[in-house]
Amino acid sequence: LEEITPKPVQDAGNILKQGYLEKRSREHSFFGSEWQKRWCVLNRRTFYYYANEKSKQPKGNFSIENYSARLASHLRKDSRKRCCFELTCPGKRTYEFTAPSPAEAEDWVDQIQFLLKDLGSFTIPLDEEDEEEPYNDVDSSDSVNTTSHNTTLNQDEPIVEMGEDEDDIYEVLPGKQPKPE
């Protein structure tokens, strides 16, 4: 696994989503707050969290690969429980967040799930040439249009005049010759 180098917020690469979330601290303290406001940034592979949006160094970051994201209303008992989501990965730390609204929590989960699906479609490490491969798969599987187009052509065939022996078209099968009359 490659080491993730900390980056200032503005250098975090292709930012797909960013905003303030409350992150549950790992160590629950009697003196400090259990939930801390953090500026969170999601790029194609990494989730960064900063003290605020002007911070130069992240408080932490982790690769989202192999994580799963889901809404998690059980994290809080107060009125903001529908704003919660978590990122889990077997054998790794679970990250718990509270978004400003339920819709925002859903959007974070959707964005992360979209990225995870995209990351999961690659079985080999990304190279510049390989990056477009999944999109080619999507384009080539566009067989619905091809099928309907062929259906239209097939419907037109009987209308085309074939001459006197138009029945021959139905008798000739691949690998078989018509019987002489």
From TrEMBL:
Residues 130-181 are annotated as: Disordered. Residues 14-117 form the PH domain. It comes from the Eukaryota. It is found in: Cell membrane; Cytoplasm; Nucleus. Keywords: Cell membrane, Cytoplasm, Membrane, Nucleus, Phosphoprotein. The keyword Nucleus applies. GO terms for cellular component: cytoplasm; nucleus; plasma membrane. This is SKAP1 protein.
